[in-house]
Structure formats: structure tokens, C-alpha cells
Amino acid sequence: MIVADLLAEDSLQLRLHTPSSSQRLGCRISWCAPTEILDPTPLLSSNVLLLTNGIGLNIEDDRTWDAYVERLARVPVAAIAFGTGTAHRLLPSGLVRAAAAHDVPLLEIPRAVPFLQVHRHVSNVLQAERFAATTRSWEIADRCAHLAASGAALGPILAEVSRAAAGPVAVLDAAGSVIARWPESSKWSRDDLQSAASDELGSSVPLPLGNGDNLHLVVRRTGSDYPLSSLLAPAASIIAMQLKGAVHTTSRKTAQLELLLSQAPDWPGVSLKEFTRTFRSTGLDPEQDTLTVVSALPPGALAETWRIRLILQERFGIVRVIVSSGVLYAFAQRADDGDREGRALARMLLERFRNEIPDRPLVLKSPSGSVDEFRLGLAQASTLVRDTAGPVIAPELSLEALVAATAGQGARVAATKLLAPVIEHDREHSAGLLRTLAIFLASDCQPSRACRALYIHRNTLSYRIRKLQTLLALRLDTLEGQSTALMALRITGHEKTGI
């Protein structure tokens, strides 16, 4: 019920005495407050309809009327309904001027209309609206529950809520970051989020997760006949269940996932057979294709963790997620579009991640067909995420991952022996040759780039390269020699030396 509805009700014969805007007359009335005291504001809440006959308000000074209305405007009240004929034959002129000045609608209840009739009418209409809103809220919740029971992801449920609320909806974390939205193309600025949580422009409904996460469902109101917080409360429970289900599905098997991550880089110490047993213990199927996502997260990045979870949950039947040392690892199997080629599926997900978290370092590794390939892809993605600024797809193979996978104990010993003369020379002469080698190779063996990175003259670089070739017994002007030196650096962990 809005203020304009009272003016449209013929039985009440109310008359408006202020030049109120359509926005003010469209204010929704929360309840009716009969009062005859000079300062009722401690007893009032927002958007009440104040009913008074003016008994005890025998005010002659316009400044007192102004102070009276100013206090009511701060609450704010939806309108003042003033009954004439009991204590005041006409509306006090000071009250009319004060109401106009503070933009508070002033309605006159004529002598012929019983004061109680207005109160009863407003109460009956509000009660009927609340009953209708309750009925509709459970209808919305029932449709959302039906979607959830049929296996729908969070998106279709948010779409149903968006239709019911007649506006875009979003799920926010405690920091005010959006973790899910509908429509997916909708944009939520900080001002939008603040407006959506305000009483005037939208609604915010807490999601009862029961696990310490503080999430809210918010609506950007574009038009609704019902109080949104009441309308969406039952549906919010369904959304909370979906989110909780996503957490349970993606976060269980934590101990097994931690073991998987610790075993993955230990190629010499953990055999493929042992690694496969750990892989199976996480709930992943060795016979299924496995998509890998690795993302570097800032501290407290709850929203981004949720986004990645939910995006994968919408597309895959099995999802496992773990965050370790500020890096999120996600593994997904059983894509709902089984006919889509793995690389095409990765490109579709890449587009989604670029829309949702464009500035977050994230690497997608196309679905691997075996545990051995999965292990290689995990090593590749874990390395690549350190050097990327946004979501990317990892190439099918990288030298670093291949070296890590194939370098046994013998290769490690040989690589150490190869670099030993350079390390010994640096120790005796502080020549920085190992750093020069690492930067030269990282600069794609381009002298000009290496000189800029090392802040040395080209002749100095040429001298150092000749010295390195002597110590390594390798030609660094050939692809074979460069590759050998690069693999030795990576096997021994010196590839980032000085960089």
C-alpha cells in the first residue's frame, strides 16, 4: 500500500494539502501509528502513516510546527493524516507550510470520516498484502525447490528469483563482492550494491548457510508490489542449500587433496601407481577426463573462490577444490556437455572466467585423459600461473613440465655436475655467471634483451658467454646447447636465479 492508494480510496475522502511529488506519494506504508504527543519519533519506525487529531497540539508559533514536522521527516514517516473537527476546525496553516517545506505529504481526514475508519482500512489492506506476499513467497520458493530437486545449478534458481523480484539479483560475500548474479551479463558497481541494500531502492536477504560464511542475496529493484525481504526469504533458504551443496561437493576430501598436491611434483619419489591411488582416494575417477584450474588468490578472496566453484559446478558432475598457500586448485570431471571437445570446453570456460574475474591469474588445463597426463598438466599449470596476469589456457605441453616429469635421480645428478664449474667459479670470483646464464636463456638468447636485463655492455656479455661455454663444455649459440643448459637450470631449480 502506498500513500497514493489512500487518496484513491473514495470511502476515506482524504485530501492532500501539500505539493507532494509522485515519488513521495509512491512511498510504501509500513504500518499505522495513531498518536497525539508532540514528539512521537522514539515510538516510530520508517514509513509509518502518522494519524493524529492534533489533540494537545495547540501550537501558534510556526517554528514549533516546523520542528514537529522536521522530526517526523527524519524518521521518515510516509505521510501525516490529520483529522479535523475534533481539536482543530481546519488544518493549522503552520503545519501545512512545514509539511510542504520538508516534503512530507499532509492528508486531511474530514470530520465526516471516523478516525478509526482510516486506521482500520490501512490495517486491513496491509494485512491482506502481507498474506498475499507470504503466499507468493512460498510459491517462488516452491518453484526454486523444484529446480533444485531436478538438479539445476544456481543460475536457473537466481533467474526465477530475478523474475519474481522484477530486477537483477546477486549473491554477495561479507566484503560486498559479487560471487553470483542473474542475469549473468548484469553489472554491479559499488553504488549499485549500496543502493540494492537500502530500504528505498532494493532489498538484502541473508542466506542461512550455518557454516560461518556471511552471504546475502540482494536485488536491484526495478518494480515490485511486495516487500522484497519478505518475498524472497523462503527462496533464500533454497539458494543457501544450493551454495552449501556446492561447498560440500567441492571441499570434501581435503586431506586426500592435500596429499595429491604434495605427491604431484615428487616424480622420483612417488610412482604413477601410488599417485593413481591417491587420485582415486579424492573421489576422482582415473578413467574420466579431468579438467584442471589453478588460480593465485589474494588474502581473503572468498568471493573469487566461490565464483570458480560455482562456474565449475554448473558444468561438471564432480568438482574438487582446495586452497593451499594462496593458490586455488580445482579438478572437475563429468562435463554436462560430454560431446564437446576438451579444448572447446576449456575455451568456453575461459570466456566465462574472463568475464567474472578478468584480473585474476588463472590457468585452465584442457581435460586430460589419464592420470599421468593430469599430473603433467598440474605441474604445467602450477608453474604458468606465476607468470600470467589473467585467465589463460595452458598449452598442451611445456618444457618445464616435461623436464619435471622425466628428470630422474640420474638426470638431477648430471645437471648438478654440469653446472658445478659455473657455481664454483662464481663462488671464487663473484662473477655472476650463473645469473648471466639464467637471464640470457630467459631473454630467448637475444643479446640486446639480456644486456638490458643485466645492465652490462654487449662486449661484457660476449665475454661471459665465452667463459660459460668453456666451463659448461657447451656451445650456447646452438639450440641443442641452449636447451641443455636450460634443462639443467630447471632440473636443479636455478632457472630463476637473479631474475
Report what the structure shows:
By secondary structure, the chain is of the alpha/beta class. The protein folds into four domains: 3-113, HprK N-terminal domain-like (Udp-n-acetylmuramoylalanyl-d-glutamate--2,6- Diaminopimelate Ligase, Chain: A, domain 1), CATH 3.40.1390.20; 133-247; 252-397, Alpha-Beta Plaits; 409-492. The protein is 50% helix and 15% strand. The chain has 19 helices and 14 strands. The strands form three sheets. It has a five-stranded mixed β-sheet. It has a five-stranded mixed β-sheet with strand order 11-12-10-13-14, with helices on both faces. The chain is elongated. The two termini are 68 Å apart.
Q: What's the alpha carbon Rg, rounded to whole Å?
A: 35 Å
Q: What is the CATH architecture assignment of the largest domain? A: 2-Layer Sandwich
Instruction: State the CATH class of the largest domain.
Output: Alpha Beta
Give the number of helices.
19
**Which residues form runs of ≥5 with pLDDT under 50?**
none
What order do the strands of the largest sheet run in, or round the barrel if closed? Answer: 1-5-4-3-2
CATH topology of the largest domain, which one? Alpha-Beta Plaits
